[in-house]
From TrEMBL:
Name of one Pfam family that matches: MLKL_N
InterPro entries for this protein: Adaptor_Cbl_N_dom_sf, MLKL-like_MCAfunc, MLKL_N
Transmembrane segments: 12-30
Keyword set, alphabetical order: Membrane, Transmembrane, Transmembrane helix
UniProt lineage: Eukaryota, Metazoa, Spiralia, Gnathifera, Rotifera
Species assigned in the record: Adineta steineri
Coiled-coil stretches: none
UniProt superkingdom: Eukaryota
One GO term of the biological process aspect: cell surface receptor signaling pathway
Name the record gives this protein: Mixed lineage kinase domain-containing protein
Sequence ranges assigned to domain Mixed lineage kinase in this UniProt record: 24-116
Length: 120
């Protein structure tokens, strides 16, 4: 099993986070994204769409959280999802930390990055 982000094998310590701990980490990242969007991006269509996609997936994870066998089967996809959510948090931090002028000047760049996150 490998992490999509760096193609490195998953370490024993990381593998132990699969299941409820990994799902909890995903929930935490999703909540962080949601809070950032609610605070800074309320009028941004891309932010709202990203938030909706994340919560569709999180809603599914809630159903498998208590089933260890399904959690084990979904290790790799959950690690990939976690990597994607980390990328989302990073992009949102860049976007929200930019000045209004910076957001306008780099709007095409941010639009492209948001589209990449939504389609991946």
């Amino acid at each position: 099993m490998q992490r999509k982000r760096d193609r490195e094998p998953v370490t024993v310590g990381l593998a132990l986070t699969v299941g409820p701990a990994l799902i909890g980490g995903i929930f935490t990242l999703a909540k962080q994204i949601h809070n950032t969007i609610e605070t800074y991006c309320a009028n941004q269509t891309d932010c709202i769409e990203l938030n909706e996609h994340i919560y569709e997936v999180v809603g599914c994870l809630e159903h498998i959280q208590s089933d260890a066998q399904i959690s084990k089967q979904l290790e790799q996809p959950m690690l990939t999802l976690q990597d994607c959510l980390i990328d989302c948090v990073t992009l949102l931090e860049k976007f929200t930390n930019a000045s209004t002028i910076g957001q306008v000047l780099r709007s095409r760049h941010y639009k492209k990055e948001f589209e990449n996150l939504i389609t991946n």
